[in-house]
Amino acid sequence: xxxxxxxxxxARNVRRLGHLDLPGAGQVTVAGHHAYVGHIPNKxxxxxxxxxxxxxxxxxxxATVAVGDMTSHxxxxxxxxxxxxxxxxxxxxxxxxxxxxxxxxxxxxxxxxGRDPTRAxxxxxxxxxxxxxxxxxxxxxxxYRNGGxxxxxxxxxxxxxxxxxxxxxGIGVHRFDMDERYAYISTExxxxxxxxxxxxxxxxxxxxxxxxxxxxxxxHIAGGETPTWPGKRHRLHHALxxxxxxxxxxWHGGFRVVDISDIAQPKTAASYNYHPPFPExxxxxxxxxHPIGGKRIALAIDEEDQAQSASEEEARRGRPHAGxxxxxxxxxxxxxxxxxxxxxxxxxxxxxMPGARFGAHQFHERMSGTLVHAVWFSxxxxxxxxxxxxxxxxxxxxxxxxxxxRKAPQSNDVALDARGLIxxxxxxxxxxVLEFTG
Length: 438
Prior knowledge:
It is a single chain. This protein has one domain: 7 Propeller (Methylamine Dehydrogenase, Chain H). By secondary structure, the chain is mostly beta strands. The N and C termini lie close together (about 10 Å). The model has no long low-confidence stretch (mean pLDDT about 90). It has five helices and 31 strands. It has a six-stranded antiparallel beta sheet, with no helix packed on it. Strands 8, 9, 10, 11 and 12 form a five-stranded antiparallel beta sheet that branches. A four-stranded antiparallel beta sheet has the order 3-31-30-29, with no helix packed on it.
């Protein structure tokens, strides 16, 4: 069945039930009759929106939460029981993300040159202007100290109440997982290079207690470890809990399975890295909830990490876009790749739009039967059936019409509710309520 246009969108076996022009978002999560949306850095100091979705045709904004700090953003959000957690992370300005790396950059140049680098050499190394370097030096003198996560009481979703702002380290917290007892936080911490996993006990949400940490060997530089990769290419993106396992996506380090049967002492149970040859980093990994075809299956989805400017579009032709891959993980000591799923550039009219990403980004982090609900930036929602793990096939799609004056959609996250309804958010503008009709 060919895709058809509906309300300006391109859809197959999916229909739009409702829509809100919410500002750009990084994550959507659903609890009960409310959707919680974490927003991309913005000029309005908007951190989180809470939307009443009891009537899916008429979603209503019922509350917003400000970040309260224009150097930070809160683009990720989770809810468990009456608690909502949002991340607190430094805005990705040229100065903000590089200031903390300057000591290492100066050290590497000093070792290479046999002397202190000149200002011109620093600018060339960083590919920045003099004004950028001045901003970086200003931030070096006043390091970022607000990174962490905030815990809110959302027993009344329309009236969220701040309980606690917990500080971590570095540029703060990125994506994370939680349940009613623990928070599984991906964050930078002093003494480590890149994000690691820190597990907190939430029994008293006003005073979360650190239980344990997990990291890849090489990250704990204060403990004498030395990374075998450049910069922060290997780092925790986030880890999801499934029973006594954490499934950890590790960017250009592939993925790990972490045994938390003793939650105070996490241990690596499996390690698999498919980079290279795949060029885009691992965003999320999860196991299927039940055996498929007699096998224990895991799925990994990569993030298209490079925006396509007019010049970059030509440069990346022939390079694979980010996609989804499946693995046999019945034996964690011998992970076996099974198949790939990719979306063709021919499947979206926005595939080569300058300045817009095209490839994969994220899937809903819990499967529905054998269906995977995933978003591709310029290719919108893709619903993929993995009943045959060797041959995943698409059974539905929905590409939103560009909104807010943008030339292409940039679908960023997807969630499902107990009714099976689908929610997607856009990095720039848009919140859609969808229904699979296949």
